[in-house]
Structures are given as structure tokens and as C-alpha cells.
Amino acid sequence: MGDDLDPGEPGLTRFWIEFDYGPGPRSLSTWNPGPSCLGVTGFDYDDALRIARAEYFADRPLPAVRSFIQDVDVSTIDELMTQPFSPPTWRGVWYPPQWRSRPSVDDSSL
Hints:
Blueprint: E1 13-20, E2 37-42, H1 45-56, E3 64-70, H2 78-82, E4 92-95
Antiparallel strand pairs: 1-2, 1-3, 2-4
């Protein structure tokens, strides 16, 4: 799939963000850290984090970012070679897949 995808909206950048939740509590049954990584397309890194917060961390703190890749080529992400993902050319979260038929970021919620 690589970078031959539809260019999408001008001015958007794909990010692959990996989170660091630190050590979990003793009772794992109550620990729900959220996704370990996200594929997000935004205007810039801060916009991608705002989208991630709104989509996955609205009711809990955004975890520390362990690493991120800007302008990621989706064909280089191992997780994506065996799992589906939403269109990475639209502004919003594309991994884990949201299965939307169009971009759906609501700026009023960011």
C-alpha cells in the first residue's frame, strides 16, 4: 500500500505513535491502558495528539509517547501487514481501524 495512496487533504501528515504506559498495577483486571499504538493523520504532531486524545483518551490522561514516526509509509509498519486499517489519507485515526466512509474529525471536540 505504501505512499502511492490518494494524497488526501493538502497539508496533512501521517503519524505512527507508540505509547508508554509504564508498569501496570498489581491487579491487571482493572488496568485498561488503551491502544499501544495509533496511526493518526493530522495537520501536525500536536493536531495528531489532539485527535488521539479525543478518540481514545477522553476519559483518562494521554499516556507518555514512547516514539513516533512522522510521514510514516504505512507499508513499513509490521502491525499493518496483517491487520486492516482505515484510509490514512483522511484526517483522523486510521489504526486501529474506525471504518468510516469519510473523514470524521469534529474540531469542536478537540
